[in-house]
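Subject: Protein entry, chain in single-letter code together with its fold tokens

Area: Proteins and the way their chains fold up in space.

Attached in line: The record itself begins immediately under this heading.
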Amino acid sequence: MKNCWIVGASSGIGFELAKKLCINGYNIVASARSLENLNILKNQIENDKKSTKDLQNYGDVMIEAVDVEDYEALKKTWQNILEKNHKIDLVIFASALYEQMDLRDFDLELSKKIMHVNFDGFLNFLHLVTPHFMQNKSGHIATIASVAGYRGLPKSLAYGASKSAMINLCEGIYPELKANNITLSVINPGFVKTRLTAKNNFPMPFLISQEQASDYIYQGLMAKKFEIHFPKKFTFILKFLRIIPYKIYLPIINNIYRKNHQK
């Protein structure tokens, strides 16, 4: 069986993805800040495993509580994982902090916190796992970004910037990882029904469930795609907006702002 480390597995997409990978033969190390939620995940996986007839192809789960902002704690967790598993085949960074925000309610400390968790946390993660894969000349690194990182959007102040930085970083390191036989995947979901999107006070087109999102991601990971984006009906619209010039894009986004965000 292959081994996978998921950081940010205590809720949302990371939670469902851990379950999905276990069902499909991956031994999972699930990490997050909340030990309580990680135990819920572990219990669900173990209960599901008891009820299956295909035990041979069902992975095991181990939990390791850690905060991605704490580099030394993350480093210790990674060392513990390698000591127990020796080789990790797939790592997934799914940690995220999200709050709607624009200039009228600009919270500087919260903005820095969002950047620190979403982007600096990914840097911490990447710095630790890359040497392992480089040494083995194999493996798969994946991170959950967002279509909010494609281009600047109203009320996405710090969150969109953090995801844009993540996408840019992955595009830049892709050739070096590819040269070392390491797969890199950037996961860009549209609207997924989670505790994070529950905060939104605006219409969310093509909203999908966490289970649907985990199916899309699993299929993309198994196909070793660089970008995994979904649902396509929504993401292709945003991809179009990503490539059009400012003289077209800005009037469109101004119109959206006026209709949905001005009070």
